[in-house]
Design brief:
The structure is a homodimer of 456-residue chains. The first copy, chain A, has an eight-stranded mixed β-sheet with strand order 1-5-6-11-10-9-7-8. A five-stranded mixed β-sheet of chain A has the order 13-12-14-15-16. In chain A, strands 2-4-3 form a three-stranded antiparallel β-sheet. Chain A starts with 15 loop residues before the first helix and ends with a helix. Chain A has 456 residues and is α+β, with helices and mostly antiparallel strands. The interface between A and B is large, with 107 and 107 residues.
């Protein structure tokens, strides 16, 4: 029976070129993770539902892919629940496992489960796919990779410093020069909220402030008023609207605004420490920028907040982000474990490298030489030569059938194979190989050693 | 709320050492796949249910993990079906996606879907996890990796020859010497069935024959009789019971048994061709063995059948297998595409390498040097040195907190970090580094260049 095959929306097939390009990015990230002393772990694709549910808010719960129990799964649904025909009641009875939604919660679960085998501080990296039942959009998928590095078990700010270095190292190695690493601190935002008397409106005012670049000062103030932030509070924010300049001068302004807030002052100290260290160490190609409006992950970040923007002129959202969370593992019963981590956005980095032509050509090269098949005897001799070439690291193939010459040459052309070797009766007797360079048409007749030398 | 975290049965967490060892195997396989001209593809973790269902038999359908639809999924179940409370009726309504069960069906779907972008013969490899709701057992998991290489679009037997070389190359590179590559041919089995007049009992007699080593000739014959295979047929099998010796002499016996069967003779010719080629080319460390009782995958294999056994003395099932199938893509409407492929059993290869102590020590080395933290000023200087070491490829870490010396040394010990560097006030002033070798306790005070030279 013929079916027209498709794949589920929001998922992707990757061909050889795409796999090679993705793997170039992933291997670069991995190499730097390792250089910085991070150790790899892997967790199962699905977790018990109660490990994941309730950890990402209601919206998150909705977007988690649930796996149907096996066998006579409806037996676990009692009659009353069944008659209700309510997904809320029935889902937990017929589904006990779910696909991982991110790498952070499985990591927290891992740390708690294996706490006796782990040396703290624990620096781990994890590069695996995650799944979300999100509405698919351009650049948003239902299956995508996350590339995370985290340290848990220490509150040292040296880790924030190292994560900035890590971003710099990865993007420099990818030749993606001039990324901006934006940094903020949750404590700064809490301090501002305190100063303007809006501790309970942290989210409201940060959401409004975040729009400053887009809608301008007047409209931001309007939005704040609409959220019942007082005129007095808004006027105290005035220096924030005028906040400009380098890290140092922004810090100066913040100090004047936050002088009365203990938590605000703590946030400033942390930012100053990080900035001083980075200034001393220097960055290779990235810029560190203080961004007081940066407010991602306010539900869990308690200290530093990071976000990385592509170089100027590339229209792309953030290509990385992260921050410090003071109680990652508390949800699983292990308290007082502070952590800090960052993530690389593989799909967006891919798009940026593609747009800027930064993928090295060599990564998509595959087969270097195709041996044309003139029949069993000739092909058999070719396979001997191919075997030896492979032992020297040359990617070589035999066209499997003695098809028409034209068909075999077309195959080599379409696959972008740069060389073909022809071994006909004449070459066979003389133990020679005719090497043809596809781009120029040039042909040379060589013995095996010369062939190897030409291809290696 | 504290929860005791666990993972679903049949799944696994992998720690750094396990990830490194698995990745050593996978990277070795990948390198050889590439050398042989195979190109990587990746497919989504879940497929539309109708892509997978019905492709693996009833048992397979049962073992496929189904994903619950999102949102108000019960709306799609009409009242009659709902009142039946029958999983058979309800499952297809509430689940439209399923986790991939193997890599072969998704590959077939990929080939058909992308047939216009593919050059045939198409040599692809794919290394991704698959999921089966099997009862977990020792060495059998619900999530595990498959490592497959296949060629589709050619019937050339040179491909069978190359797959044997590929097995040999991979296991040789893994230092797993002396594996046995067993080969059989479905056509031989069909020929035998024809000769003994039991064409319709192919499975019955191969299942019985397969037990020869375990239960002996008399009991095998008994089982055949119980399956209504005639005395005359069984007597024709007599030479098979006595089948011994090398490839050549087994072929001779088969020729006498199968002289009246066209398909049997075809199978013999194929085996002879492959054996001749391999004899000419030579194998590095593996042995090729004709095994007439080998009968895996009879539902789909139409030509060669492969299975790889670990070296003598290692009690492990097959560590690889494969074969030729004449109509892989027919299920998706693209007919006449012959394919042949092999698979490597990652988990079992891991167990074999572990049992034989064949993992190179270097693969599990991680951090080479830990810088002890004596406080902010010293640590800051250390971080400069660490940054430079990393730029030279040395995996270096700073202990993030200025904890007690003993705690930091214990950390280095437990993590098996071979060197620590101490930079106290004295070293700081002299711009020097005290390098301690953990195994010997030896200490040297060095400038940076000498430190780098010692660690690189």
């Amino acid at each position: 029976m013929a079916q027209k095959p498709t794949i589920p929306k929001g998922t992707r097939d990757f061909n050889a070129e795409e796999v090679a390009k993705r793997s170039y990015i992933v291997e670069t990230i991995k190499r730097q993770f390792k250089l910085f002393g991070f150790q790899p772990i892997e967790t199962p694709s699905f977790e018990n539902s109660d490990t994941l549910m309730g950890k990402y808010g209601d919206e998150g719960d909705r977007l988690i892919f649930k796996i149907l129990n096996s066998g006579a799964y409806l037996n676990k649904v009692d009659d009353a629940d069944y008659q209700s025909k309510s997904e809320t009641l029935i889902t937990p009875k017929i589904s006990e496992k779910a696909l991982r939604y991110d790498l952070t919660v499985p990591f927290a679960r891992y740390v708690v489960q294996h706490q006796n085998d782990i040396e703290f501080p624990f620096k781990r990296y994890q590069i695996q796919p995650v799944w979300r039942a999100d509405r698919p959009q351009k650049g948003r998928f239902r299956e995508f990779y996350q590339c995370d590095a985290d340290v848990v078990g220490s509150t040292s700010l040296f880790q924030e410093v190292e994560f900035i270095q890590l971003y710099d190292a990865v993007f420099t190695e990818l030749q993606l020069k001039g990324v901006t690493i934006k940094i903020n601190n949750r404590k700064i935002l809490s301090g501002i909220a305190e100063v303007i008397g809006a501790q309970d409106k942290l989210i409201d005012f940060t959401v409004a402030l975040d729009k400053l670049d887009k809608i301008g000062e007047a409209k931001v103030k309007e939005e704040m008023r609409s959220k019942a932030i007082s005129e007095e509070g808004i006027s105290k924010l005035q220096p924030l609207f005028d906040l400009k300049g380098d890290f140092g001068s922004q810090i100066k302004t913040l100090k004047s605004i936050l002088s009365s807030s203990a938590i605000g002052i703590k946030g400033i100290e942390e930012l100053e420490f990080i900035n001083e260290m980075i200034s001393n160490l220097g960055l290779k190609t990235a810029h560190l920028e203080l961004s007081v409006t940066l407010a991602r992950g306010l539900n869990y970040y308690t200290g530093a907040i990071f976000e990385v923007a592509a170089p100027d002129g590339v229209d792309m959202g953030s290509i990385g982000g992260g921050g410090r969370y003071d109680d990652l593992t508390g949800i699983f019963g292990l308290t007082n474990v502070s952590g800090v981590g960052i993530s690389f956005g593989l799909d967006r980095i891919y798009l940026v490298l593609e747009a800027l032509g930064l993928f090295p050509e060599a990564i998509t090269e595959s087969t270097k030489v195709l041996f044309i098949n003139f029949g069993e005897t000739e092909a058999s001799a070719c396979l001997s030569a191919i075997t030896k070439l492979r032992q020297h690291g040359v990617v070589a193939e035999l066209y499997p059938d003695s098809a028409k010459m034209k068909k075999q040459m077309t195959y080599a052309n379409r696959r972008n194979i740069p060389y073909v070797v022809l071994v006909g009766e004449k070459e066979l007797q003389a133990k020679q190989f005719t090497l043809k360079t596809m781009s120029t048409g040039e042909q040379l007749t060589l013995n095996f050693d010369a062939l190897l030398a030409a291809l290696i």
